Amino acid sequence: MGIKPVLTRDFATENLEQLAVYERTGGYSGFKKALEMQPDALVDLVKASGLRGRGGAGFPTGNKWSFLPKGVYPRYLVCNADESEPGCFKDRYLIEESPHQVLEGILIASYAIGCNLAFIYIRGEYLPQTEALERAIEEARQAGYLGRNVLGKGYDIDVILHRGAGAYICGEETAMLTSLEGYRGEPRLKPPFPAVKGLYGKPTVVNNVETVCNLPHIVLNGAEWFKAMGTPTGAGTRLWCMSGHINRPGNYEMENGTPIRELIEEHGGGVWKNRKLKAFQPGGASMMVLLPEHLDVGLDFDAIAKAGSLAGAGAMVVMDETTCMVDAARRYVKFFEHESCGKCTPCREGTYWMANIFDRFEGGDAKPGDIDLLLDIGYNIDGRSFCPLGDASTWFPRSVIKFFRDEFQEHISQKGCPFKKALQEAVA
Amino acid sequence: MPLAKPTVAQIQELAARYPSKQSAIIPALWAVQHEQGYVSDEAMGEIAQHLGLPPSLIEATASFYSMFLTRPEGRHDVVICVNAPCMLRGADEMAAYLERQLGVRDGQTTADGAITWHSTIECLGACGGAPMMQVDHRFEENLTPERIDAIVQGLRKEPAPHGAEPKRTARPRVKKAQS
Fold first, then answer.
1. Are B65 and A334 within 8 A, CB to CB?
2. B9 touching chain A per CB within 8 A
């Protein structure tokens, strides 16, 4: 347990973003080994490793691959680098530090599923990271890792780097495919799942950046090695993005199952300014709030779910005792309102009204019935939206009402934010 | 303002790169914004022409994505994130400071045309360095009032990020094609 650098093992190496340096650390030997294997054996290996998707849902990667219908070509791999979850900045780090590791993972996944054209969908705001990947692709092409008849093994693969333009919804896999096809990034109905009918109507696998970064290591070291790390249902490590009221914010690669306490108190250096921990979120904007009593929960999909939240994309947002939980929830709700694509009514209208009511709380105009009104709107969005964006917009605010209802009541009785008032009085 | 030849060539190359030419819409919009600083109706029409798609389709896509600007803005784009992880580390105070220093409100452009600034609720992926702002396409993290001063001063002198300022300087007239 604890810090376990697997994906980040060589990140201290200077110029790791260069192909020659990456190769010296063992880079592309995973891909070379993969090319010696039968694609099906590779799928079985990843299944046996227990690797689960690192994008948020935690779906087993090998299973996802095996859903592709037999004999239907072409098929596509899309690497999801549209990292936009508030609190999350791990994919950016993985790309900046080692773009070739991302690319090698993509090549392995492509070979395993029999894909000859892969895409990387990267968010528009990550321009330097886009350029880093562009350089890596060019270097790899020159070295013969991609192109026609790769390394003389008769396998053809090309990678297209596709830059988004500012839409959180495009991180949802079907919206990503719609966006890649050039349309407004609206999600599609599932089923059919992308594995059956994805990009351009062809079988498609969408894998997160961190997920594919695990592949070279699994191929080189084997399923047993991978499974030996982490928990029985959560093999391996994850990158945790620490932000908020913490002494040492940043990315930490932790073995799955390590207690949250160790991440926050030891590696993150504890809550800043010697203040007390009030709450934290283990999965970014979407996920339910947890309390100090949950500090001994393990960093693991299932353990965090059991505690009443979700590990999501691995963003740990820490909030100290001075945090206004109503305002924190307000920001997230406004984020979802801004990012709702407008396709379905519960999400489009629901997030708008939740944002309005939250503004009433912060502005001192909230009425006694407004807390229950928020819960009622949340109830009518969750499970009734077209895609998970709507559902997720309600999880944090509803959990905050559950644990911090008194703060909402204070906002009503004091006609405004008690935390801001306290701050202004302290300054005056 | 018609598109420059290299941009047109780039759009044509993009159309051939993807299995479907429609997939070239977003990269084509980027190419245009890179050249002209924003995407005008006229430019969308040109994209449509080069891709052989209806102009309505180009506009439908362009209007969905928040990074495409449909009217000219200042030479530099400054965006400050005020989502919760940044808010926890003082983003509101930094936004208020930036507003005071620039003397224009959220969403406006300074009188000298140097800077358009706005706050955003969209997380930019730099929570570990909060408070942060995006200056054109680079991230400035761990902001303090002093750092904001230095950045703003630099931007007032710096040219637009993509070479010259095509949207402000006059371009040589393109000769009308002989018909």
1. no
2. no
